[in-house]
Write a structure and sequence with these properties.
Layout (H helix, E strand, L loop, with lengths): L5 H28 L26 H13 L5 H25 L7 H21 L17 H26 L5 H17 L5 H21 L8 H18 L6 H4 L1 H20 L10 H7 L4 H23 L1
Helix pairs in contact: 1-2, 1-7, 2-3, 2-7, 2-8, 3-4, 3-7, 3-8, 4-5, 5-8, 5-10, 6-7, 6-8, 6-12, 7-8
Length: 323
């Protein structure tokens, strides 16, 4: 499969679906055999207690899909994207292993994960900027007071912020069966199409394969979930979304098409800030935002499908902006 036209992207999506569905089935059997299981988050709603014991780290299939795609295609910047996603998945895997071994949903400290993903982002951006296939976004900084050097530093800083923000926002959204994987599909679809018009063909292929991977994973992750992606998967998906956006030259568009993830992150920031400022008062029943609706009486499946719909609407708005 070569090229990045819409027909080819569909084939990459089908490829990602097949590899993910097969890989998830294999991982499920493996994790059950070796007792690699999720422990429900202690502060989550009481209904989540039944989720304890569900196999986790299923997000390894996202890395497997991209590595398999790299084995077929040598599209520009695909290797850099795959390496970056694998690096972030590795950070998440360390977090998941700690949780499994300690028998509690307490892994790496948030500060450690932020620093680790920021470092991974810096490595990725450096490799991308050094590639002859990538054209630095100088046109975004054409004001007379901005020099070429300062433009690149600004791009690097914004890239690190976009990547760390996106990866951890997706991580926060991974709290209900099928929520993160389903919410990821619409923004990846927008970026896949946008990237077909860019020099970074690898971005389009990575996004399309990622769409298929999310759909294949949902066969095992939709309610009631038999397999969780863990931080391995949520950090990998966040890295994929941010990485593709950067390669396609649509870093700012992440705020729109990733609106659900933005809302999830903001809900935590506002909740914690308000709690500290008021000495214990809360804006929401619980954060992240999906738990607020759960505690309001919405069934888990209703919250998930509404968030999928919201992601679709945000992505349509983003598509209307860029087309």
């Amino acid at each position: 499969m070569s090229g990045s036209g819409l027909g080819t992207l569909s084939l990459w999506a089908l490829f990602g679906f097949a590899v993910a569905a097969l890989g998830a089935g294999v991982l499920l059997a493996f994790f059950r055999r070796f007792e690699i299981r999720q422990h429900a988050y202690e502060d989550a709603p009481q209904t989540h207690r039944v989720k304890t014991g569900t196999p986790t780290m299923g997000g390894l299939v996202f890395v497997a899909v991209l590595i398999a795609a790299l084995g077929i295609s040598r599209a520009p910047l695909l290797a850099e994207l795959v390496f970056f996603v694998a690096l972030c998945a590795g950070i998440g895997a360390i977090d998941d292993v700690i949780k499994v071994r300690h028998g509690a949903n307490r892994g790496l400290q948030a500060r450690t994960k932020f620093l680790a993903t920021a470092l991974a982002a810096a490595i990725f951006l450096r490799e991308v900027a050094a590639s002859p296939s990538f054209f630095p976004p100088d046109v975004l900084f054409h004001a007379g007071t901005v020099t070429l050097t300062s433009a690149h530093w600004l791009w690097l800083l914004l890239g690190i912020l976009a990547i760390t923000g996106t990866t951890h926002a997706v991580n926060l959204a991974d709290g209900l069966d099928g929520l993160a994987a389903g919410t990821m599909i619409p923004p990846l679809a927008v970026l896949a199409v946008v990237a077909t018009g860019s020099a970074a063909a690898g971005a389009a292929i990575g996004a399309a394969a990622g769409i298929g991977a999310c759909a294949g994973f949902l066969l095992f992750n939709a309610h009631p979930a038999r397999l969780f992606m863990g931080d391995t998967g949520s950090l990998a998906l966040g890295a994929l979304l941010a990485g593709v956006a950067i390669l396609a030259g649509e870093m700012v568009l992440l705020v729109v098409i990733g609106g659900v993830f933005v809302a999830e992150a903001l809900s935590v920031i506002l909740q914690v800030s308000y709690f500290k400022a008021t000495g214990g008062s809360r804006i929401l029943r619980m954060s992240p935002l999906h738990h607020h609706f759960e505690l309001g009486g919405w069934p888990e499946t209703k919250v998930t499908t509404r968030f999928w719909l919201a992601s679709l609407l945000c992505s349509l708005v983003g598509w209307a902006i860029v087309r």
